[in-house]
Please model this.
Amino acid sequence: MGRYPRIAKAHAAHRAPPNLADYDAARRDFSWATARTLLDGLPGGHGLNIAHEAVDRHAAGPRADRAALRWIGRAGERVFTWRQLRDATNRVANALRGLGVQDGARVFVLAGRIPELYLAVLGALKARCVVCPLFSAFGPEPIATRLEIGEAELLVTTEALYRRKVEALRPRLPALRHVLLVGEGDTATAVSGTLDWKVTVEAASPDFAIPPTDPEDMALLHFTSGTTGRPKGAVHVHRAVVMHHMTGRYALDLHPDDIFWCTADPGWVTGTSYGIIAPLTNGVTNLVVEAEFDAQAWYDVLERERVNVWYTAPTAIRMMMKLGTEPLKGRDLSALRFMASVGEPLNPEAVLWGVEAFGMPFHDNWWQTETGGIMIANFAAMDVKPGSMGKPLPGVEAAILRREDDGGVSEVTAPMVEGELALKAGWPSMMRGYLKEEARYRKCFAGEWYLTGDLATRDEEGYFWFVGRADDVIKSSGHLIGPFEVESALMEHPAVAEAGVIGKPDPVAGEIVKAFVALRPGHEPGEPLRRELLGHARKRLGAAVAPKEIDFRANLPKTRSGKIMRRLLKARELGLPEGDLSTLESDER
Ligand code: ATP
Ligand code: MG
Model:
C-alpha cells in the first residue's frame, strides 16, 4: 500500500480551519465528560435525548429559522427549518402518545427517503420509543422477520409498500398494533387495519415536551448488512448522540451552516447516525435526496445545492470512476470542501481519483453498525495515505490483537503485522447488545476489548490499514492474504471496474486465490484479458499472493447497502448453501 503517494493535509486546510486541528493534542486532552458538554442535555438536567440535541435545542436558539432538512424529492422539494422540524416531530410524538404507544415501544419505519421517514424517526425518539428504520427495497420476508425479532408495535410506511410487502404477512405479527400509512396524494388512505398519517399525525398538537430520558435508554435498533451471514439487530442508546455529534464535528469536519449530504439510506446505520442525527446536532443543513444513485444526477446535486461536505461509499465512487472525469467538466463544485467514504474498503485508486476528479481525496473512515459511530478516520488536518482507514477518534482506543489458543488475546505491537482490529469498550455509541442474541453478543468481547471481526494492521505512524474481514481472509501456502489488497491491485488495471476475491480450497496450497472481476465499459472478457490480468497481478503482488484464477462477471453480488458479498461468490463457486440472502441486492447470475 505504501507505493501510493501521501496526500498532504494542506488540501483541506485552505478551505476552512479544520475542527480537529491538532490530532495528538486532541487525543491527549480528551475526555468523554468534555465531549458531552458539546451537547445541552434535556432542560432541568433531565437526561439526554437524541431528538432534543438534533432538533429542539436548535429550534429554541439562533438557528430556529434556518434550514435543518432540505429534501430533494423525485417530484418536488421541501425545506424544514429547525422550528418547523420541532413542530412536525412534536406532532408525531403526540400522535404516538394518543395511540397508547408507550415508552420503549418499538417503532419501525419502512419507507424510501421521504420527509415522513425523518419526522417519524425523530418524533418517536422524542416519545422515548425505540426506532428501527428498514430499507424499503427489502422483500416481504426480510421485513416480516425484522418486525418479528424487533417486536414492532407500530409501523410507519407508505400505502404502496404496505400493500406490496406487509399486508399479507400481518397475521404473523400479533405485536404490531398500529400501521400508519403515508398516502401518495392529498387524500387520506383507507386501507383496512391501518391509520392515515395525515389524519393521525398532522392533526396532532405541535406542542410536546420530551419526557426525562435516561442516557442509557434504548433509542435505536439497527440490523447489520448481512455481508457475512444472518443480520444481527444492534441495540443503541440515547447516549450515542455524544458520539454522533463529536464524529460529525471531527471526522466529517462539519461546520455550522454547512450543506451536508450523506448518500446512505437510513435503513443502514450510516443513513441514521450521519443521514439524520449528526448533521442536525451540529447545526448544519442536512440534504436528503430521494432518488437512487445516478452519477450525473449526483453531480447536479453537488453543484446546484452547493454541497460543502459529502459522505458516500466505495461502491458509488467506483461507479463514478467507471465514467471517468468527463461528466465533471465545466461544473462549479467550488463549495465542496470535504469528501468522506465508508462501508467498504476504499481502494487507493479511488482516493486518488477523488483528487483527479474533485481536487481533493476521499477521506476513508471505518466503523460498524455495532459501533454506532465513526471509530477510525482520515481527519481533515491529517495527511491521507491512500488505502489507509486513518487513525482512531479521540477517546477511541484501537488495537491489533491476536487470539491465543487458550481463548485469550494478546496485543500485536509490531507495525504492519496483521491481527484482529479491536476497540476498548466504553465509547458512548457502542451497541448495548444484539437483540435476542446474547451469546452472539458475548462472543464479541475478550475482557475489555471488543473484537470487530475485521483484520487490520497499524503502521509506525499509527495509521490503520484494512486487510479483510476475518471470515474472508485467505490462507494460501502459509500466507495470510487479505482480499482487499488483491482487489485493489486488480483495480489498478484500466479494464477493471470491480473485483471480489475469495479463497478456493486446494489440496496442495490449502486455499488458492480466486478473483471475480467486472469490467469497465469498452473491455471484453476473454482469454487474452484474463492472461493480462493474471500477469498484472503477479507483477504487482508476487506469485504467492496474486490470483491463480480469474472469472469475469457482469456484476458482483452485493448487499443492498452496496457491499460485495464474498461469502456468496464463494458459496456459488463451491456449490455450497447460499445462506441468508435477505440483504442481497443484485443477483449476478
Ligand atoms: P454483517 O455484520 O451482517 O456481516 P456488515 O459487517 O457488512 O454485515 P455493517 O455493520 O453495515 O455490516 O458494516 C461494517 C463492516 O463494513 C465493517 O466491519 C467492515 O468489514 C466494513 N467496513 C466499513 N467501513 C470500512 C472501511 N472504511 N474500510 C474497510 N471496511 C469497512
Ligand atoms: Mg459486521
